[in-house]
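Handoff note, outgoing to incoming analyst
You'll be picking up this chain. Sequence as last confirmed:
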Amino acid sequence: MNTTLLLAQLLNGLQYGFLLFLMAAGLTLVFGIMSFVNLAHGSLYMMGAYAGAVASNLAGSFALALFAAATVALLLGLALEWAAVSRLYRRDHLDHVLATFGLVMFFNELVRIVWGPQPYFVQVPELLSGTVSLLGFDYPSYRFAIIAAGLAVAVLCWALIQKTRIGMLIRAGAQNPQMVGALGVNIRLLNAMLFAVGAMLAGLAGAMAGPILSVQSGMGDGVLITTLVVIVIGGIGSVSGALYASLIVGLVDTLGRAYLPVLLLQVAERTVADAAGPALASMSVYLLMAVVLAVRPQGLFPAKRGAR
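Most recent structure output, in case you need it:
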């Protein structure tokens, strides 16, 4: 086995995993505390990617692009929560799915009208356009920056939830929102804040993905499905579970795509391996989710009372 290739794929898996965590952290809180099924979370990722791409191409500053993406997604999340989401809290999950699926279609068509159907490209920031040498292996600096940003967000999420009064209310709300409301906490404000913060993280993930992926209409649909897989594996409502599951899914997906076709060559003809390998790699995370649901329906790292 090529050690350099293995190291590259491991780092790629970590980078992909941390991007998924930025998506999953907010979404799992919305599920766990608000019991709201938000299929439009991927659209917030897409809108953040477009906001970051436009700001980067106009101002030439990637830091400004990240700020613009986070701000636009935050404000958009607040607007959606006030205009639509807050009116659906007491409705059943089917209504949540139908309403947010409508929002997905709306935003996909909106970006086609504004930016057209063609992909929108973003340059890697010049400061991070080089490589980092690790054990004699050169890895793109920008991908390392994504890993570092994901770690920073994970630490900030832990500090927010474990060390602040807001975090205490979040933990309590995840266990018994009715009791928290009865104690005088403004549940509606807490819900709006959680929804907006989740939207901001999704927008930030979209902006960071822009330089390594094409920014285009519908780009959030696929990543939303994978994010749902992450929170099912990790445990709905658990931020730490979202982190661990994101890294697991990122590594399984990346290593599967790299090595499954090669492994199949050992037992099948090349034409069969070339056709079946990528298909099995695409299925690997869903097979993993099915196994987890069969063995631990609550997820591998479910939220526990008094802790995350």
